[in-house]
Amino acid sequence: MSKVISAHAVSVDGYITGREPGPGRGLGDGTMLFDWYFDGGTPSQVFDGFKLSEPSARVFDGLAGRVGAVVAGRNTYEDSDRFGGGSPHPGARLIVLSHRAAPELTERQTLVTTGIEDAIAAAREAADGKDVGLMGGGALTSALQAGLVDEVILHQVPVLLGGGRPFFQALPEHVRLRLVEAVPAPGVTHLHYEVVR
Ligand SMILES: NC(=O)c1ccc[n+]([C@@H]2O[C@H](COP(=O)([O-])OP(=O)(O)OC[C@H]3O[C@@H](n4cnc5c(N)ncnc54)[C@H](OP(=O)(O)O)[C@@H]3O)[C@@H](O)[C@H]2O)c1
Question: Ranges for the Bacterial bifunctional deaminase-reductase C-terminal domain (predicted)?
Answer without folding.
Answer: 3-182
